[in-house]
Amino acid sequence: MKALPRKLLPLTLFAIAVTSLFCVRPAQAYSVTLQQVGSDVVATGSGAINLTGLTFLSVAINGGIIIANLGAIRTGSETNADRDIYRGFTGPTSFGSGGAFLPETGSGQTFGITGNLSLRNLYVPLGYVSGTALSSTSTYNNATFATLGVTPGTYVWSWGTGLANQNFTLIIGGAGVPDGGSTVSLLGFALLSLVALRRKLPLLRGTKS
User: Does pLDDT of 24 surpass 50?
Assistant: First the structure.
């Protein structure tokens, strides 16, 4: 087998490291970001859920909504579709003083949570399988955080034993949930490895095989 040219060795190893990084990266835990976009408020949800540690309750029909005083938010385009309902999480019981508001438009499968103690439910698409990526949006026309009665901040609901994706995060007025720095750390490690290899190249060139 012909040996790889030494000039290509560091670049090849770096490419392998970066490719492996993005191939094995799991989907982030589900989060919803509520932001003011022009004259509208837009809720954007994405990520995955691990249902381990939750208890299935029932199937119900519901759609997108926000009810700050009940800690409830669901995003998506479906207004009358079945959802699987799960219970067994802990977290905030509200994220403001506002009542019920329905979005004017939405996209994706409807998914969400209610934090109120008497209605503490997690809503997922019918037949949802743990780890499946979810993505949805809801738009509230001519609205503000004040008119919706939501309080800016980060609200987290969690369950289980702390496994990946056993949480649901709502960020009001923020830019999203970081991945804990794992991706940046691994990429930094790959870059450092490349630098180390480049420093060793002169020594390798002076060594006869």
Answer: no
